[in-house]
Write a structure and sequence with these properties.
Radius of gyration of chain A: 26 Å
CATH topology of the domain at 19-283 in chain A: Beta-galactosidase, Chain A, domain 5
Number of helices of chain A: 12
Number of strands of chain A: 39
Oligomer: homodimer
Shape of chain A: globular
CATH class of the domain at 19-283 in chain A: Mainly Beta
Largest interface: A-B, 27 and 27 residues
Strand content of chain A: 35-45%
Chain lengths: 700, 700
């Protein structure tokens, strides 16, 4: 269904020339209006007749070239409709419907003889638009000075936001009206290993709620070969504007045509649950080009990690502070005796993983260089192939494989991305040689090439190079401290998960607020799965270090529920073996819970307050329910109508104990079984920062 | 011979604490005086009692750390003497004497508990000093904000200088007193493909002459893992100060101890000829670690090059301006018909090389990507392995080898150094596969990683990585647009030559002054051999392009003499085949002249005016004499006393014709033979910008 129009000038009145065109969503709830006013392109978006985005300018400023902001004529216009379904390799649902109406507008700038295209896709759950730069005589290469896409909001919305930054998303969320951002901005961040705050900018996914109860989520999709986006906020007009991450010289992107920008996405609904259910961002990504994907599998794992994060053991093998890789002879250094990744300890984890049905064991701190890996802008910081003397890579992999378990490789780059690119092929060959099928990458610290940022174009391309190179070796990638995901797991399904937000590790650093995991699904997770690493049973760290004030601000049961509410096909049980052995009945839920799904139901959700979801395990008649709450205790009615009414079910319910409280009594829980049907309704109490986790199987 | 002293405080008077120590050159002509005055280190240098360098401060400013400028105590002092000889793999002489007295001063900074060492070596022909940073608890990592080494000159010397720049040395030399630099500075440069002028700074090697006729040359030796140096000039006090090249963030160097700076070198003599004869810079470099060097051989070559430089043919195969490597299908593009590197043309060059005894043929423009290689900051600009459709890499190499000739690989990086590092191993494997043994690299344009400079630390390390990687593949490197050489060909003899100055190509661009090649040996060539690409017989380009004003500002004979005066073990005969065929008698000199030498005699030289040298071919009883002059005709007396007096010799003398003139009659020459002995003296006239070239063999 394709229509072509050739326009001269649509309308002329009062010396203002206006071309305009409207497309609606398949269900007609959404209406996108495109206008060319005095040769300047604008768009706006309505939801059920209510303005979501008011007339907002589109365009780009270029370096040393005339801008792509104005002086346009309409050259061509195309409308199409698409309605298809596709199956993600791994996902929250088995089948995704991709249904939209599309408007493509070709804009010609007579003064420069250049043509660009702006493409809009209106789905039932939102809008995506992007710029396209066709190859043409007068537009082969250009440098982006700034993308100036606006999102003119229709009021002083409530926002769940983190401050603009070029290097990290690892902040707590601030909840405020947009007009309050100026006074709160400087309180919205703490220190990070690498950070470049962008004043009065907000990061995406940005979650908003209008006074009329309209939920709006703004982000980007298919971020490829282009700088990552922040949003400049005008706290008086509530206009947001794209703010691309600059490179070392302040440039925002080097473009060779043909090229297209990422999609700018606006997910909209009057139900918060619909935001979580939206597949708009995935739909705006390209289908995967991988012919074979059977090597991409969900992973539930344990690992040598939390003990280092909280300070019980070390990544480093010695206490030296000056390592020259390939020169320093570790056999002549004194071991510090605290090295976590030692043979016996790793074998214990392998045994534990095998016994409890985990797929894999992550081991951090296995390779030479951890003594001085951080804070020195050291370019040759790891070689990614040389184990410490007490890590027998062959023996441990052989041992793991003999037990049906795989090791997960850890490649911390220390943000020396340039060094990682020199070594990654060798590193992946080593993984192939020893039978690793997944790598956790890390980008802690400031980027090398120096002056680049975690979200500048060069690094976006770097993350892509890593995923491409890993794919050649059939290796799955779990990237930490990388850019906000933008749905690329559709196209590159081996990019199985990412961190790219404040994860569980912060519970051992500065702490995560009780509402943190209630916001993340509405923000960070809109772009893709997060390796949040839940499962901490021993939430209070004074258990290890008497007097230590640090603690994970949830109940134990809430940690269980996170396996359902924090979608990821790669999920860690992050706590120590000894803690799982102390609570074997609660641990059963982690053993049972799926990580890849046929279906997902967002039962109840409000950002930062509560989330209740049910998910059906991939290929099995098993459901798992997870409910979590913020610092407020809460009773939720769980309606099991999602269950097949023709079948009988038995639910194992993991609930907060009556006296449970994330501060006073986090380990109080109660487990019981109950027969249920699709008609069952359960009034379930959740403790302050508590939760509920339910596994549901067919009754025999 | 090693003496150790422990000092408290050497002398205390008038509340100024002074430690001082003097060492002299082996012949006592030079005297270096080190002082610690009020805890600040200074050095000075005298030549035969005349001050060369007055008391000059030493030290470094660090980023975010206390400086290494003051607050020092003497901790230890060491004096040694060395007298040894060594044989360069390729060189101007067969054996080099390395003879110096050394002072090592260990400086302790009590406030920071850090120790550094300054090492001085005094040779008969000059001084070298460097900083050493031993590994120690309080000095493992630091960032250099600036090195502040001074060279306080003793007067308003005459200087042969090019302006400070972070990216290019491709300038004409300006000759002026130092006090005149301010008024001349902005006239001292023209445009370059990549340039970052450093106001009121001068580049090294910097050639100076005092009013008393003392010749002084300042440069650096063994530039490894450290930013390249300019010299800030104070035009009133005549104090020069090191000015390191910054990276994208303005930092001058990331240092991990143990580490040492390059040597700062001062070559001094009252004879200009001694400056050219000095081996001080080579001596300050480390001996090669290559166990086997027989794959490193001198190379005389022709090539497909000058025709593109002057505009007769093109590097590119098509006139497209938008190439996506690996995507663009060249078979579907229209060839432009001007591509130089085509099979037939290269075969003609191979035939010509074989017939005339050349070792190799350089071919530029053989690989895909030349259509849009420059000016777009295009990162993936070449893959270095994919030939154009009309360049049959296997056939041409087979053909060349069948005739005893090798092809020289050309890897223009377009300064996308990061891309070259991704591909160089594959590129060198391709060279090995097809039998290339040398590569010409190029760095035209601004560096990627963006913000780095041609002389910033990262790029210095890059050039080193290239040479190291090439060595693994037994490939010789001829680097163009790289940093000023600093004698590293001693340590890495496969770094056979470099351009790194304004070469013959500029005769087709902006033009080189008649005195240009009279200055280069005193400046650029102090650091190592230059691939100047002499041998242009058809100096006037209106021969090809009627009305074209461009011309090479020398006589034909001066072009011959350059093969002797511009030392390089890699020498091109740069002109077109047709021009050598027009002047076969003159071309005979190029065919005969050696490129590797047993001995060199600097007979007469004054920077920018005249040079007369004699060199003995390696392993042969053959001498070659080259004499050149600036725009002034000149008569030189050539004293053949360098010849073995027990033998009789026959000289073939290539002289400017009586009516020769670089403007009016450049191709006028006269060739004759003459029997000579060691007692012969020849009064030889050189035309304006003319020369004389003499080949001398044993009389049968």
């Amino acid at each position: 269904m394709r229509r072509n129009f050739i326009f001269f000038l649509a309308v002329i009145f009062w010396s203002v020339s206006v071309f305009s065109q409207t497309i609606t969503s398949p269900n007609n709830n959404l209406s996108m209006h495109f206008q060319l006013v005095d040769s300047v392109p604008y768009y706006s978006l309505d939801y059920k007749g209510t303005p979501v985005i008011k007339a907002s300018r589109l365009g780009l400023e270029l370096e040393k070239l005339p801008s792509l902001m104005n002086g346009f004529e309409i050259k061509d216009e195309t409308q199409t409709t698409k309605d298809e379904t596709w199956n993600p390799v791994l996902g929250e649902v088995k089948t995704i419907r991709n249904h939209y109406n599309e408007l493509g507008v070709e804009l010609y700038q007579p003064s420069t003889q250049r043509t660009i295209r702006i493409r809009f896709r209106v789905f039932d759950d939102g809008l995506g638009f992007r710029y396209e730069f066709p190859e043409q005589p007068n537009l082969n290469y250009f440098v982006i000075k700034d993308e100036e896409s606006e999102f003119a909001l229709n009021g002083d919305h409530k926002a769940w936001w983190i401050p603009g930054d070029y290097d990290t998303e690892e902040y707590e969320y601030t909840i405020s009206n947009l007009s309050e951002v100026p006074k709160l901005f400087d309180h919205s961040y703490d220190q990070n290993a690498s950070q470049t705050i962008v004043p009065m900018a907000l990061q995406t996914p940005l979650m908003l709620e209008s006074k009329q109860g309209l939920f709006i989520n703004i982000h980007e999709a298919a971020l490829i070969d282009y700088a990552g986006m922040n949003l400049d906020l005008n706290p008086k007009t509530f206009v947001l504007k794209t703010h691309l991450t600059p490179d070392a010289q302040g440039m925002k992107g080097y473009i060779q045509t043909p090229m297209r920008s990422p999609w700018r996405t606006i997910v909209v609904s009057d139900r918060a649950e619909d935001i979580l259910a939206s597949k708009l961002i995935l739909n705006l990504n390209e289908p995967t080009k991988y012919a074979i994907t059977d090597w991409i599998k969900p992973v539930k794992y344990v690992g040598v990690w939390w003990e280092m994060i909280m300070g019980k053991s070390t990544w480093s093998y010695t206490n030296s502070n000056n390592i020259h890789l390939g020169v320093t002879d570790y056999s002549k250094l004194k071991p510090n005796g605290t090295h976590g990744a030692n043979n016996q300890h790793v074998k214990d984890y392998i045994d534990f993983a095998a016994k409890n049905g985990f797929d894999a064991v992550l081991v951090e701190g296995w390779d030479e260089g951890w003594e001085d890996w951080f804070g020195h802008s050291k370019e040759y910081v790891f070689d990614f192939v040389t184990p410490y003397p007490d890590f027998d890579i062959k023996m441990l992999n052989d041992y793991a494989h003999s037990k049906g378990v795989k090791l997960i490789m850890h490649n911390e780059t220390s943000s020396s991305a340039i060094n990682y690119e020199r070594h990654f092929d060798t590193a992946y060959k080593l993984m192939n040689h020893f039978g690793y099928d997944a790598v956790k990458t890390g980008y802690v610290g400031n980027i090398i090439p120096r002056g680049e940022h975690h979200y500048s174009q060069w690094m976006i391309e770097h993350y892509q190079r890593v995923v491409d190179q890993a794919a050649k070796h059939k290796v799955m990638v779990d990237s930490h401290e990388s850019v906000h995901p933008t749905g690329l797991s559709r196209t590159y399904p081996n990019w199985i998960a990412a961190e790219a937000a404040r994860g569980t590790e912060y519970d051992a650093f500065g702490g995560n607020n009780p509402n943190h995991t209630l916001v993340l699904p509405f923000t960070r997770l809109m772009g893709g799965p997060m390796d949040y690493t839940p499962g901490i049973f021993q939430t209070k760290l004074d258990y290890y270090f008497p007097g230590d004030k640090r603690f994970v601000k949830t109940t134990l049961v809430k940690q269980l529920a996170l396996y359902v509410t924090m979608y990821s096909p790669l999920q860690m049980a992050a706590d120590l073996i000894e803690n799982y052995e102390r609570f074997p009945d609660a641990f059963q839920f982690i053993k049972d819970v799926a990580v890849d799904w046929d279906d997902t139901k967002i039962l109840k959700a409000y950002p930062g307050e509560y989330i209740l979801e049910a998910r059906k395990a991939k290929g099995k008649d098993e459901w798992f329910v997870g409910g979590i709450t913020d610092e407020h205790a809460r009773t939720m009615t769980i309606d099991f109508s999602f269950l097949d009414p023709s079948k009988k079910w038995i639910a194992t319910i993991y609930e907060d104990g009556k006296d449970a409280d994330y501060i006073k009594n986090p380990q109080s829980y109660h487990i019981y079984q109950k027969k249920i049907t699709s008609k069952t309704k359960l009034n379930q109490r959740l403790a302050p920062s508590g939760g509920v986790a339910i596994s549901i199987k067919l009754a025999e």
